[in-house]
Amino acid sequence: MEKIELKYLKSIAKQYPTIASAATEIVNLQAILNLPKGTEHFVSDVHGAYEQFSHVLRNGSGAVKRKIDDEFGKTLSKRDKQSLATLIYYPEQKLELVMKQEGDEESLEDWYKVTMHRLIQIARRVSSKYTRSKVRKALPKDFVYIIEELLHEKEEVLDKEAYYNEIIQTIIRIGRAKETIVTLSNLIQRLVVDHLHVVGDIYDRGAGAVQVMDTLMNYHSVDVQWGNHDAVWMGAASGHLACIANVVRLCAKYGNLDTLEEDYGINLLPLATFALETYGEDECDCFQVTDHPGLTGVKSAKLERKMHKAITIIQLKLEGQLIKRRPEFHMESRRLLDKIDQAEGSVFIEGQTCKLKDHSFPTIHKEDPYALTPEEKMVMERLQTAFLNCDKLQKHVRFLMNNGSLYLVYNSNLLYHGCVPLNEDGSFRQVEIHGKMYSGKALYDILEQYARKGYYLRWEPESMEEKFYGQDILWFIWTNENSPVFGKEKMATFERYFLDDEKLRSEKKNNYYMLIEQEEVVKRILTEFGLSTEDSHIINGHVPVRSKRGESPVKCGGKLLIIDGGFCKAYQSQTGIAGYTLIYNSYGLRLVSHEPFKSVEDAVLNESDIFSEAVVVEYANRRRQVADTDIGRNLKDSIQDLEKLLRAYRSGLIRETGVNDV
């Protein structure tokens, strides 16, 4: 045995110092390998739609209902099943309603008994694919003993029914029924889904991005594939001025300034003061709030429009400066402020002169249209300080950095938000980054590397240049046509505000979206990321699937799945639904569509749900086990190492106390 291997085995021996402990762990790991694989849940493009997102997590994209159907079949009515499902989704709210509806103590006690029995049955079913240890860890400490007694059969008890009834009766008698029901409901939610994948775009449009992030940070097992909207917030948190301007503009555009002020505590008073002083007589009609039913906070609609215009002009200036200093980004066509003729109220764009809808630009000066005025500089300095010193935002972005990436290979599937940039012939597009050319997987890797530098590197002389370039890369990821998570020819911000020409306002997609029905293209992508072309899939977000036009989220015979159906209300008029999600369990892949979510009150009172339709994308011929997963492969490696340790113990190379015998 080589010295290196012996040294490694000695390190394992510290954890398993005897033959008995090593052998026990081998048996334990081998047993885990034969359990059914845990359920993976895929969501994408949440865009701040917190209530819809929360409900989808609670119902496991229909997984809770399927468990209820599997357990009770036709022994429960459809109404009783729905009532049980609602209780599992919202136990506190449903209990409050039941307590008002049940007329007397005896009726309430009967309801407690029946409900706890049903919840225990479901909890037993969903916990059957996990070890007792994992289930125990999912329980609050105060309830571990009680729930374990209820979940696990007692072979030594002759009258099991009386035994369990007595436990339940005692729980009710001592006033712990409500807490037990809540704990069982939360346990079912927790065990129905083993791991959550968020395939990009948590931020922008909806007002609940902060609540979504708080939920993810408390979720038991999750990863995030960054979307372009996430990248721009990451850039803003790093202190990058162009990213900050984009973030503030989008919050203004969608009526979400409270996300910044109330949720993150970022002071917008300097921007508001500047906007009033600069655009006081300007109605700013091109800067109306989009898809928002009312005003945010106490601000008037007029003030919000002025703030919206002020930050938009600042953004266009900052981006023009950035494009000039980064010629390798090849975005000169997006520098449009110097093409404006304020006297004529026009702009020269794409070879033609177009009339502007708004040509009041008091801060844009002909001699240097991209220079910030002293007042604009002050606004951005104050905003930069606020973003850098916002503890909650920094905590959220660190979570995205620690639990996220631009792509993920997980259990033989490839997850990414946007697209792999392709040429017309389906070959990988070559993209220049810091003087070198990258494509395919290497492009993702280099962009992620610089994105992390842009956020984590300190403002110190030796790292200043790399830090600054990394920050610019975060902006590149947000908006460049060669960004894998943007994937459009341009972001037509200027055109959408100032021009009526729909052709100029359109954003042409990357060739990827025209080629993903071609099997050779999808196989080439899978191969590029080291995956089998036979049993792997690409799981993709970013582009809403317009179901009402007949579009399908299933591409290339099921090899590629697009799961952005429009959680956010801003998209639902285009899509006709409220989002696609994906479930991958031991039986296969199931694509789920959802209806728009009304409210928690409606869900509890009327027992309404948004689970709409499920399509089986792939059904496994053999039920998949933990052994077939990435975790399973790691467990197999651990078993091999432990078996080597056993041989070392038995041969005397290592003593059972962990001391070398040679």
Describe it for me?
The chain is an alpha/beta fold. The protein is 50% helix and 10% strand. It is built from 28 helices and 17 strands. A hairpin with a 4-residue loop joins strand 13 (554-555) and strand 14. 42% of the residues are buried. The model is unreliable at 293-298 (pLDDT under 50).
Helical fraction equals 40-55%
Radius of gyration: 28 Å
Count of separate DSSP helical elements: 28
Oligomer: single chain
The chain-level structural class is alpha/beta
Q: What can be said about the biggest beta sheet?
A: 7 strands, mixed
Strand order of the biggest β-sheet: 7-3-2-1-15-16-17
Shape: globular
Unreliable residue stretches: 293-298
Portion of residues in beta strands equals: 5-15%
Through-space gap between termini: 12 Å
Kindly report the average pLDDT value: 91
Number-wise, the strands total 17
